[in-house]
Amino acid sequence: MTTEVSVKPAKGRLGILTPGLGAVATTFIAGTIAIRKGIGKPIGSYSQMGTIRLGKRTENRNPLVKDFISLANLDDVVFGGWDIYEDSVYDAAVNANVLDSKLLDQLKDELSAIKPMSAVFDKHYVKKLDGKHVKTAATKMELAEAVMEDIRQFKEANDCERIVMVWCGSTEIYIRESEVHSSVEKLEQGLRENHVDIPPSMIYAYAAIKMGIPYANGAPNLSCDTAALVELAKQHNTPIAGKDFKTGQTLMKTILAPGLKARSLGISGWFSTNILGNRDGEVLDDPDNFKSKEVSKLGVLEQILEPEKHPDLYKDLYHKVRINYYPPHGDNKEGWDNIDIFGWLNYPMQIKIDFLCRDSILAAPIVLDLAIFLDLASRAGLSGIQEWLSFYWKSPQIAEGLYPQHDIFKQFEKLKNTLRHLGGEQLITHLGLDYYEQ
Asked: Is residue 366 part of a domain?
C-alpha cells in the first residue's frame, strides 16, 4: 500500500538565509553558484546526486532524488545572511581561504553582490570574536523583531516565494535548558527581559519559527532545541532540525561504530583529537564554547553501542574528545582517532584513523541538503522536529522522552523512507520476503 501525501510544488524562488557568513556559508554559496554555472558538481549532496530505490529490486527503478520528488531547483535559489563583519560573500570567501582564488574570481560579480545584514551578536556567548557589524536594541525581543524585518525585506527585494534559515554561525557557550525555555510565554518574557540564557542563535530561531520559516541549527548551540521553540514550531506549522553538522570525526564514528557493533567486537577505548585553524577552531579554543561541542560529540558512541545491553563489549569503554586550535591548518581539519578494540577470547587489536578533511567542503553540501529538504517538509505540511534529517547531525534533535539515533545507516534508511512516503511510494525494509519485495 502507498499513502497519498499532498506536497505543494516548488514554484518560485527559495531564499536561503544563513546567520553567519564565514567559511561554511561562503563555501556553500560560492559552490552552489559554481554548480549552477556548470563549473563544478554538487559532490556530497544527497538531494542533488543521490538516487533512491523505489519498489522491488526487480523493477529497477532508481531515479535521482531530485527527479523523484518536487525539490527546489538550484536555479531558483537566492542567498542572504547576517554577519558581524561587513565583508561581502566574495571578500569573506577569500578571507576564509577554502576555495581556490581562480574559482572565486569566476564568481566575483555574484558573490560581491551578496552583502551581510547586521548581525545579532553578544561577545558574552562567543568570547573569541569581536565584530562591529551588529544590531543594537534595548531588548532581545526587539532584536528578534529586527531579524524578522530583515527577513521581510529580503523576501520582498528578492521576490522569494519561500524562505529557509540555516544557522552557520559560531559555537556559543554551553547553556543548559532551563525554566525560561520551558514555554513560549516564558521565552517571550525572557526576550523582553534580556534573559542571559537566551543567546543570539535562539533569537534567530525564534524569529524564523515565529514567521513559519523552517530553521536548522548547524552548531551545538541550544538554539531551537528547547520545549518553548518546539511548541512554537507546532503553533506555526514550522519544520525545525538540529544540531551540529556531522562532518569530520563524528561522521567517521557513526560509520565505523555500527560496523564494529554488528560484528560483536568489543571496544575498550576511543580517543579522538582534532586540530583546526579556522574561525570555528579559534572559537572552540575557549573552554566554555568547547563544552558545547564536547557534549555534542560525546553522546554518539554511547547511543550506538548501548553498553547497558552489551556489558561484555562496551561497559568499560573510555571515550575522550579533544579539539585544539592550530592556525596553520586553516579550514583543513585533521582528526586523529585511536580505537582499542578486542575480539575472540578478549585478544586486543587497534584501529588508527587520520582523517585530513576540509571542514567547510564537507559542511557545504549539508547546508544545501538541509535547506532543500526543510523546504520540502514545509511544502508537505510537516512541522516540529524533523527527525528524518538526523542523518546530517552530530547530536540529532528529538522529541521529549526519546533517544537520538546515531547509526548513520539507520539514519539514511529513515531519510529515504520519509522521501518514499512523501512521494507516495512503498516503504522498504529489506526483509527480502517474496510476498513483500524481491
From this structure: yes
- 372 and 351 in a single domain? The answer is no
CATH code of the domain in which 413 resides: 3.40.50.720
Long-range contacts of 39-46 (CB under 8 A, 24+ apart): 39/103, 39/106, 40/103, 42/365, 42/368, 43/365, 44/361, 44/362, 44/364, 44/365, 44/366, 45/365, 45/368, 45/369, 46/365, 46/369, 46/415
Alpha-carbon gap, residue 15 to 160, rounded angstroms: 6
Q: How confident is the model at residue 2 (pLDDT cuts 50, 70, 90)?
A: low
Residue 350 has a pLDDT of 98
**Does residue 95 belong to any structural domain of this protein?**
yes
* Alpha helix ranges (H) inside 211-352: 227-235, 249-262, 279-284, 287-305, 311-314
The burial of 20, by beta-carbon neighbours within 10 Å (0-12 exposed, 13-18 middle, 19 or more buried), is given as buried
Share of the chain above pLDDT 90, in %: 86
What pLDDT, in 10s, does the model give residues 398-430?
998 999 999 999 999 999 999 999 999 999 987
Determine the Cα–Cα distance for residues 212 and 374; give it in Å rounded to an integer. 12
Rounded Cα distance, 369 and 134, in Å: 29
Pairing state of beta strands 348-356 and 334-342?
Answer: antiparallel
Residues 59 and 169 in one domain: yes
Strand partners, 163: 15
Cβ contact 284:293 at 8 Å: yes
144 and 163 in a single domain? The answer is yes
Mean pLDDT of 205-220: 97
- The sign of the dihedral angle between the CA atoms of 122, 124, 126, 130 is positive
371 is a domain residue: yes
> Residue 324 pairs with which residues in a beta bridge?
275
Among residues 307, 333, 356, the one where a domain terminates is: 356
- Provide the domain limits for residue 123: 13-245+360-422
Question: pTM of the predicted model, to two decimals?
Answer: 0.93
- Confidence class of residue 299 from pLDDT cuts 50, 70 and 90? confident
Number of compact structural domains in the chain: 2
> Is residue 241 a contact partner of residue 374, using CB atoms and an 8 Å limit?
yes
Grid cell at residue 209 = 519559527
Q: Is residue 8 part of a domain?
A: no
State the Cα–Cα distance between residues 165 and 117, nearest whole angstrom.
Answer: 14
Q: What residues pair up with 342 in beta bridges, in sequence order?
A: 266, 348
Task: Write out pLDDT tens, residues 351-397.
Answer: 999 999 999 999 999 999 999 999 999 999 999 999 999 999 999 99
Q: Which residues contact 262 (CB under 8 A, 6 or more apart)?
A: none
